[in-house]
């Protein structure tokens, strides 16, 4: 498997680089926005970058299936499965805010084993392979050693469904007990978590394509990455609780007993 993962990492990084060139071109030139059936925006930058990613990944690993944000899944039953969001954060992209990224992950028999998170305008690229550590532009990173909740920095992302049940009050108490609260969102707070700048990330309205690579990166940086109820990630996951080991454990305990809808 080592050779396969080496090949896959090289391909994923090449694919992220190809996507970055396309995204940067349209960032400078501007694009028209189309509204999809689910009321989310899409642009030619999303679609062209996914096609470029698919071409590189398919050439490197023809045995793998690919599940992409814009063009769907070609085969979810294969032993190896790529998960691709070519431009996660399209709403930020079209509003000229640099909090968007390309997310590429690889699953092996349902387990996330590789992740590349590339944010070309923000100026960061992170990657990780299971058992090999997490890296930011070639430098190994590690989550903070924060153990006391009173010292924790919490970041939230999409939390709309959290407002409708008992978890909202739980979150409110955690905010009161923490050191500070931020809302970095998208890839950014996961990058910060992996390199020690944030201690806990909470989201209740995400897609696996948004966060699959980030799960590998955070775990390889020494963090814990689960659903809000502590369950493992899967293709249908919609919520995230990620943090340093101690802070994640306390947050999970606090959420237990609350009504979980996401």
Based on secondary structure, the structural category is alpha+beta
Count of helices?
Answer: 7
State the helicity in percent bands. Answer: 25-40%
Name the strands of the widest sheet in spatial order.
Answer: 4-3-5-6-7-8-9-10
SSE pattern, N- to C-terminal = HEEHEEEHEEEEEEHEHEHEEH
Calculate Rg over CA atoms.
18 Å
Q: How far apart are the first and last residues' alpha carbons, in Å?
A: 34 Å
Summarize model confidence as the mean pLDDT.
Answer: 94
Largest sheet: number of strands, sense, barrel closure: 8 strands, mixed
Q: Which percent band covers the strand fraction?
A: 25-35%
Low-confidence spans:
none
Descriptive account of the structure:
This protein is of the alpha+beta class and 262 residues long. The chain contains seven helices and 15 strands. An eight-stranded mixed beta sheet has the order 4-3-5-6-7-8-9-10, sandwiched between helices. Strands 12-11-13-15-14 form a five-stranded mixed beta sheet, sandwiched between helices. It has a two-stranded antiparallel ribbon with strand order 1-2. Helix 1 (2-29) runs antiparallel to helix 2 (44-60) and helix 5 (186-194) packs parallel to helix 6 (208-220). The radius of gyration is 18 Å and the shape is globular. 45% of the residues are buried. The model has no long low-confidence stretch (mean pLDDT 94).
């Amino acid at each position: 498997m080592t050779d396969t993962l080496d090949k896959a990492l090289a391909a994923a990084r090449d694919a992220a680089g190809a996507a970055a060139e396309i995204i940067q071109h349209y960032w400078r030139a501007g694009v028209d926005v189309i509204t999809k059936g689910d009321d989310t925006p899409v642009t030619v930058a999303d679609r062209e970058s996914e096609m470029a990613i698919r071409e590189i990944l398919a050439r490197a690993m023809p045995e793998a299936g690919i599940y992409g944000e814009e063009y769907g899944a070609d085969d979810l039953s294969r032993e190896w499965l790529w998960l691709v969001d070519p431009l996660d954060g399209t709403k930020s992209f079209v509003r000229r805010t640099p909090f968007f990224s390309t997310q590429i992950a690889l699953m092996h028999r349902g387990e996330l084993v590789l992740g590349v998170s590339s944010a070309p305008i923000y100026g960061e690229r992170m990657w990780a392979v299971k058992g090999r550590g997490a890296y930011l532009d070639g430098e190994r990173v590690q989550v903070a050693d924060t153990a006391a909740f009173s010292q924790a920095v919490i970041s939230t992302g999409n939390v709309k469904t959290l407002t409708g049940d008992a978890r909202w009050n739980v979150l409110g108490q955690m905010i009161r007990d923490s050191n500070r609260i931020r809302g970095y969102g998208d890839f950014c707070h996961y990058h910060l978590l992996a390199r020690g700048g944030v201690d806990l990330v909470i989201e209740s309205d995400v897609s696996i394509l948004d966060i699959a690579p980030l799960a590998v990166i955070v775990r390889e940086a020494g963090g814990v990455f689960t659903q809000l109820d502590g369950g493992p990630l899967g293709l249908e996951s919609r919520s995230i609780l990620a943090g340093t080991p101690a802070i994640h454990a306390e947050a999970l305990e606090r959420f237990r007993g609350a009504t979980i809808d996401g």
